[in-house]
Amino acid sequence: MTKAIVPMDIPLLFQTAWNEHDMVAFASLFCEDASFVNRFGHYVKGVKAIVALHSPIHETIYRDSTLQNEIIELSPITDDVVIMHFWSRLTAGTAHPAGPHQVDTLILAVLSKQNGSWLIRALENVTLTNPRTGQAILRDD
Predict the structure, then answer these.
(1) In the predicted model, what is the mean pLDDT of the chain?
(2) Domain DUF4440, which positions (predicted)?
(3) Which residues pair with 67 in a beta bridge?
């Protein structure tokens, strides 16, 4: 299992685990007591709950989806804690009921260094939407 040696590794490792639909690799990115808020506002606590939230969708509607992540900003709090923002573009495939489409989200993650590697302590994912209509929009590249 690849570990995050520096905080900047997290978005790529997250992307790779998602794109390979590898829930073991995905789980390895989180602290045991991490919290996760998905793009629909569903809150879960603990790595087991995070995997339980994601496993069913990777077996069904997102089984052919991919992510492309891009770091926006890294803000150190201490030597062992950082806040990171990164863009995430989800490309859903034909397995999704709405068919192939893309969704952009903005991810806020709190990372902590534990035993020489960086892990996600908390993550919140927000879908970009038009505030007037609620329609999902793609960010300008």
Answers:
(1) 96
(2) 14-120
(3) 90
